[in-house]
Amino acid sequence: MTPLSDAIVGDARRSKRAWETLTDLVDIGNRMAGQAGERKAADTIAAAFEAADLEAVDIEEFPIPGWWRGSSRLAVTDRDEWSADYDVIALPGSPAATVTAPIIDLDYGLPDDIGPEVDGKIAMVRSDAPADARWAHRMEKFAAAYEHGAVGFIYRNHVPGCLPATGECGYHRRPALLPAVGVSQELGARLARYARDDEAETTLAVECRHEETTSHNVHATVGPATDEEVLVTAHIDAHDIAEGAEDDGVGAAALPEIGRLLAASADRLDTQVRLIGLGAEEIGLYGAYHVAATHDRPIKAVINIDGAGSSRDPRISTFGFPGLDEPFVRVAERLAMSLDVSEDVSPHADSWAFVEQGVPTVTLGSQRPAEGRGWGHTHADTLDKLDPRDIQELVLFATAATVAVCEETWSPGICTSDEIREELTDGHVRELEIGERWHFA
Q1: Once rounded to an integer, what is the mean pLDDT over residues 158-184?
Q2: Using CA atoms, how far apart are residues 201 and 154, in angstroms rounded to an integer?
Q3: What would the pLDDT profile of 306-327 be if each residue is shown by its tens digit?
Q4: Looking at the domain 6-65+212-422, which fold is it?
């Protein structure tokens, strides 16, 4: 028996509501944090919460440092020039700047492999990692390049298709410390070839605008009026270069449908559930940090949905909280789903704002056939890559797991902030310090 009735399981597997909400989100277009499309996304999720008959629906505002894209270009001495936005795109947070220096191709650019050889050069790194190495986040590589004297940064997508990759490069330090752009695998290969021939003296130019603006979180509640709450979250913003269908349109669209199914199962809920569409994740987790700093009720656990939709097989990251996987494993077994469980500690999603405070938190996503973001953070993160049936299964799993987490007889183990700190790699520490997101003593 699952935590849900057979009728609710059937409803979840037939419903098209999450897909319809997802379609509404991607049709907005640009949902960049602090811009008009993100506010439209907040309104869309609030309307879906209302349509699901959830309680206490509210949109809250909070200030963020906004970033607006201009044009970017790379010009290699005696070589071609690339200036189209599709080919060369600035990374959010990048300063407006122009630098001229040799390119150094660092291949994977693992943080521990970057040293003084980058001093005075434009560092180029791939977006993946060797099969036998820990995957390193873009910001780890950026921080290591800066620390060793690089004057610019090029982020080279490892996925073919002429798709430049984007992603924040400053976190809470605005502007970021280096001008930074993303390029496609194919353009990166050409630049790497020029660098091998010592013919890659390059001008990197970024035009952009930094300005204070406003982001939004969208709240709703369901279940008994308990003092303690379980939070179910996903971010509503997306990078401005694509639809943001998978990252994180799927998660945002899932929230109202999870709420609707929970409302129909209210008699099975022992704890109140608060569903939150979070703003400004892609530029520094600002919405999650705002909730973590202002929420005035005890939090039993947080389920953060991100990186979902690429398959119907769920995966979770538990950040090492003891026993936190138990209700998810139990639900997966009862639904005959294949569940992947990781305990790795990583500061790269909204989950982190709660994890660093010692709040038991899970990141829930979908298993991928290959490492990395896939189409995420590129122009190709579009609705056509997704299957409505996968999203129905994700919603079903997330709803059943939420009921299990809410059970009065279950409680997660605790990790202290000091224990979380000890699990961070040197690369994580460096990126958090340089990005002004280091909150440990």
Answers
A1: 95
A2: 14
A3: 999 999 999 999 999 999 999 9
A4: Aminopeptidase (3.40.630)
